[in-house]
């Protein structure tokens, strides 16, 4: 498989690029395989095998693996090589709680800065989620889902915090996909974002905080103690 054909342009363009085009395309392709479980937790990865598989240089592979390591999706250890990161419930729960704190605590800043461009972007992302759900593409749905929440949070203008949210989102979705029942209703995932958008349009901070908190807490069932906790302010 040549490096240019790793993935569709839609997915590649939605993931922020931090390296060369070729290594970014490989990063996106490997991220997808890790999130979907096609590369299993703890599976060993070698630069040579990946370079041969994707018909690219080992330097390109090395750059992509460094990005995956920064995202917490692979572990690179001296003398032990590179392995796909584990996917444990305790980590997923901690990241979900952190995500809820990050997203819900700064909604007053989001609402103050919200404009027509933000609302238009979020509506377009919601429509993209609906299309992906209709096509049965769970990964593309998750990509647009992450874009929705990232775009919403970026409005708070806290650029040093955004990478923390980005990591939480990808690991939340990875855990959810790897532990979901087959043939689940993807349309419901898309439609769960409608009340969030409506509360933003109404500029109702408290309603938005409650809806977003519940939305995040119910992504995966970790028990009543997470869903019953008060939303961060």
Major sheet: arrangement of strands: 1-3-2
Structural class category = mainly alpha
Find the CATH topology of the largest domain: Four Helix Bundle (Hemerythrin (Met), subunit A)
Summed up, the helix count is 13
Low-confidence blocks of residues: 3-9, 223-228
Average the pLDDT over all residues and give the rounded result: 89
Radius of gyration: 18 Å
CA-CA gap between termini: 48 Å
- Supply the number of structural domains: 2
Corresponding CATH superfamily of the largest domain: GntR ligand-binding domain-like
Question: What is the CATH C-level name of the largest domain?
Answer: Mainly Alpha
Helix content: 55-70%
CATH architect. name of the largest domain: Up-down Bundle
- Total strands: the figure is 3
Shape: elongated
The fraction of residues assigned to DSSP E strands is under 5%
**What about the largest sheet?**
3 strands, antiparallel
**SSE succession:** HHEHHEEHHHHHHHHH
């Amino acid at each position: 498989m040549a490096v240019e054909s790793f993935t569709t342009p839609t997915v590649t363009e939605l993931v922020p690029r931090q390296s060369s085009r070729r290594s970014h395309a490989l990063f996106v392709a490997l991220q997808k395989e890790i999130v979907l479980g096609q590369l299993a937790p703890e599976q060993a990865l070698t630069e040579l095998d990946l370079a041969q598989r994707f018909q690219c240089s080992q330097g390109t592979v090395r750059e992509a693996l460094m990005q995956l390591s920064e995202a917490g999706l692979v572990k690179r250890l001296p003398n032990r090589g590179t392995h796909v990161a584990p996917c444990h419930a305790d980590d997923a729960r901690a990241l979900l709680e952190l995500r809820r704190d990050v997203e819900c605590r700064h909604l007053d800043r989001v609402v103050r800065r919200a404009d027509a461009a933000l609302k238009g972007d979020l509506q377009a992302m919601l429509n993209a989620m609906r299309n992906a759900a209709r096509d049965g593409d769970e990964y593309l749905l998750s990509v647009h889902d992450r874009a929705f929440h990232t775009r919403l949070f970026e409005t708070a203008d806290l650029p040093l915090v955004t990478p923390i949210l980005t990591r939480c989102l990808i690991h939340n979705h990875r855990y959810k996909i790897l532990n979901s029942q087959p043939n689940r209703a993807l349309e419901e995932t898309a439609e769960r974002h409608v009340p969030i958008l409506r509360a933003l349009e109404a500029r109702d901070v408290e309603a938005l905080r409650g809806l977003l908190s519940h939305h995040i807490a119910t992504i995966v069932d970790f028990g009543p103690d997470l869903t019953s906790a008060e939303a961060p302010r």
